[in-house]
Specification:
Helix content: 40-55%
Shape: elongated
Structural class: alpha+beta
Organism: Candidatus Westeberhardia cardiocondylae
CATH superfamily of the largest domain: Transcription elongation factor, GreA/GreB, C-terminal domain
CATH class of the largest domain: Alpha Beta
Radius of gyration: 22 Å
CATH topology of the largest domain: Chitinase A, domain 3
GO biological process, one term: regulation of DNA-templated transcription elongation
Pfam family, one: GreA_GreB_N
Family: Belongs to the GreA/GreB family.
Protein name: Transcription elongation factor GreA
Largest sheet: 5 strands, mixed
Strand order of the largest sheet: 3-2-1-5-4
Length: about 150
């Protein structure tokens, strides 16, 4: 996991424990005042939210306790694609240039150009160097990319 991913999980955990839990408890308390709990949909909805929240808290705490954090800014740059780097590539078929950061599964967000280390593109790029040309098997078929730049930021 990257430092940014670690911080994001910590913020989510803090929000769930300090804000969301309190909100759910308020809804539960208020919905109990409405009488019969068997037919109280507001109460049952709040209980489901509480279960989800507590499950997510446990999941995040487990991930944080087992996380191996990698700070690429402390790694001596070698122009080699590894976990945590930002890599600029050129699709040689479409001439489209893209820039991705290779991150952990929990951090991945394709819309923000954060790709999972387990994605086909990342797996095809890891271990390669600037200037290398790689063929990556994607759901749409094989695509040829040229690695333009590797940044340790």
């Amino acid at each position: 996991m990257t430092l940014q991913g670690l911080e994001k999980l910590r913020k989510e955990l803090e929000y769930l424990k300090n804000v969301r839990r309190s909100q759910i408890i308020e809804v539960l308390t208020e919905s109990r005042k409405h009488g019969d709990l068997k037919e109280n949909s507001e109460y049952h909805s709040a209980r489901e939210q509480q279960a989800f929240c507590e499950g997510r808290i446990q999941e995040i705490e487990s991930k944080l306790s087992h996380a191996q954090v990698i700070d690429v800014t402390k790694i001596i740059p070698s122009k080699k694609v590894i976990f945590g780097v930002t890599v600029s590539i050129d699709n040689l078929c479409t001439k489209e240039k893209r820039k991705y950061r290779i991150v952990g599964d929990d951090e991945a967000d394709f819309r923000k150009n954060l790709i999972s280390i387990n994605s086909p593109i990342a797996r095809g790029l890891v271990g390669r160097k600037e200037g290398d040309t790689v063929v990556i098997k994607t759901p749409r078929g094989n695509v040829k990319y040229k690695i333009l730049k590797v940044e340790y930021i």
